[in-house]
Design goal:
The protein is mainly beta and 402 residues long. The protein contains four helices and 18 strands.
């Protein structure tokens, strides 16, 4: 019912090509071609009984869509808002597809989220601009540092985050790019509720007090290799990323420290000749020096907030973190309208005292996929994940996890 309600809400909106066009037909297990369907087709056939204009094309071939949006996470509740997304090839028709998304929402728990993310290629495809801009006025609990422990105490916190991440890449060979970036995280109005009540908390113990504001400002060097066929729902190719960020007091940071992020994603088909994908995601996130507490590696604080879905966001935090996930993606119907996933992950995090990695935290889950846009292969995703000692989480959103 939730998916149908969302579909009815967007019946009159334009749909955008968020990545390379997908085939409108596919072969079933017998080799017979089957026309692919999405939510708009269901609305046309069973609700509106008429053709729907689904695309709006503007300058340089980009296609845009203004849609209502919703998501659910146990950290912030149900969030309702709107998103403006644009995608397409900007000029020659030979470069990679650019993708830009501007979104805003307000949750049932009174939290505001404004975000802009994008991968924009230049005409000809030799330059790439990646951006991650956010403003969050939010409440996010922490549970201290180190691997997951069932008896860890929850420490409610609230803050306003202003994030400005932007990186400019230059192609050096084939799908390989090098880049330079600037990264700013400013946490304002930090309130540690239990510290305000007079308790010592992990935040105050780590920070040497209870700062109401922290700033991290620095530059990065970057290496990228990307051959994915679709930015929102990859079915082949690979994604390799490495960046090293240097935060300096001279550039506005509270302290001097460094951060390294290395990531790999691959998408083999299993069985080899099927449409089913066994996707793998591996990243290492490490800090050097005195990173601010809220900047420390933490599950669910990757760019799209998807890692370790069996745990609440921020449940596992430490100075270094390594993450591995395998997700099996398969179709439930030959027309592509419904699909499913099953996934398993391991999160390894450093201990507080030794900075050595402690026991890995396993998580797993299952999910339903409903085709929202067959042209871009964008899915509505509904996931249920679980972790250790009764930890569980429900996640709703758009685009695949990775």
């Amino acid at each position: 019912m939730l998916a149908l309600a969302c579909a009815v809400g967007v019946a009159g909106a334009a749909r955008a090509q968020d990545a390379a066009p997908a085939d409108s037909v596919a072969a079933d297990s017998t080799g017979t071609t089957v026309a692919q369907r999405d939510i708009m087709d269901v609305l046309k056939e069973h609700v509106l009984h008429k053709e729907i204009k689904t695309e709006a094309t503007f300058d340089r071939g980009l296609k845009w869509a203004l849609l209502p949006s919703f998501s659910y996470n146990e950290v912030y509740g149900l969030a309702l808002g709107a998103s403006l997304s644009g995608a397409g090839q900007r000029s020659t028709g030979t470069e990679r597809y650019s993708n830009v998304s501007l979104s805003g929402n307000y949750s049932t728990t009174g939290q505001l989220q404004l975000q802009t993310r994008g991968d924009v290629f230049s005409s000809g495809g030799n330059y790439l601009l990646k951006a991650d801009l956010r403003y969050l006025d939010t409440k996010r609990s922490t549970w201290g540092l180190g691997p997951y422990e069932g008896d860890q105490v929850e420490y409610p916190m609230s803050f306003a985050l202003t994030r400005f991440y932007t990186t400019v890449y230059r192609r050096v060979a084939g799908p390989v790019f090098i880049g330079i970036g600037y990264h700013l995280d400013q946490f304002d109005n930090i309130e540690d509720e239990r510290a305000l009540a007079g308790e010592e908390t992990p935040f105050t113990a780590y920070s040497g007090g209870s700062p109401g504001k922290t700033t991290a400002s620095g530059f990065s060097v970057n290496l990228l290799g990307d051959t994915r066929d679709n930015l929102v729902n990859a079915t082949r190719g690979y994604y390799l990323s490495w960046n090293f960020r240097n935060f300096q007091e001279a550039w506005g940071s509270d302290d001097t420290w460094q951060e390294m992020w290395a990531e790999m994603r691959v998408y083999p088909h299993v069985p080899a000749r099927s449409d089913n994908v066994l996707a793998f995601w591996l990243y290492a996130w490490m800090t050097f020096g005195d990173a601010p507490y809220l900047n420390l590696p933490s599950n669910g604080w990757d760019t799209y907030g998807r890692a370790a879905r069996g745990y609440l966001q921020g449940r596992i935090r430490g100075s270094d973190q390594v993450y591995l996930e395998a997700e099996y993606r398969f179709q439930l119907t030959d027309d592509g309208l419904f699909g499913g996933v099953a996934y398993f992950s391991l999160t390894a995090t450093t201990e507080v005292e030794t900075r050595a990695f402690g026991p890995s935290d396993p998580a797993g889950g299952v999910g339903l996929r409903i085709k929202f846009n067959k042209v871009s292969a964008t899915n509505l995703i509904i996931d249920y994940g679980w972790g250790q000692q009764g930890s569980q989480n429900v996640f709703l959103g758009m685009t695949e996890t990775f």
